[in-house]
Amino acid sequence: MMSRRNFFSTLLAICLVFLSFNFATPAFALGGKLPPVNQPAPEFSLPTNSGDGQVSLSDYRGKWLVVYFYPKDFTSGCTIEARRFQQDLPKYLAKNTQIIGISADDVDSHAEFCDSEGLKFPLLADTDGKVSKAYGSWMSFISARHSFIVRIQVRGY
Prior knowledge:
There is one protein chain. This protein is of the alpha/beta class. It has helices at residues 4-20, 76-94, 107-117, 130-134, and strands at residues 28-29, 32-33, 45-47, 54-56, 64-69, 97-103, 123-125, 138-139, 142-143, 146-151. The chain has a 4-stranded mixed sheet. Strand 3 and strand 4 (54-56) form a beta hairpin. The protein is globular, with a radius of gyration of 20 Å.
């Protein structure tokens, strides 16, 4: 008869062996299935509050990009988050990293939010939630709070 201690030691060893096979399972978050790690990020092109009209993921080739999804302009948590990104923006830029915020709010709301908070990075209008869904950040009618660090590769590298 196997002692309890031996039983749990054997069970732990079996679990460790099983985990060492590295079965990659998709990661899920509150908003859905997250994009796979170390794979190309889902491409997007969305209207922005800045004068550029549209911003695409591919516009940032050769750079690091923080893509953060947030629920709503002018809410307390989203305002704190945006202020912190703005406060640290010079540090990000020094590391060749840009910041983009995405929510379901429209371009006009984003423009007012940027003006009131002095934000110097683009906010993108994902009014139908298509991009938020692609990043596992969509919750019915708003984006869930998620941040992604993306490296946009230059072709041929």
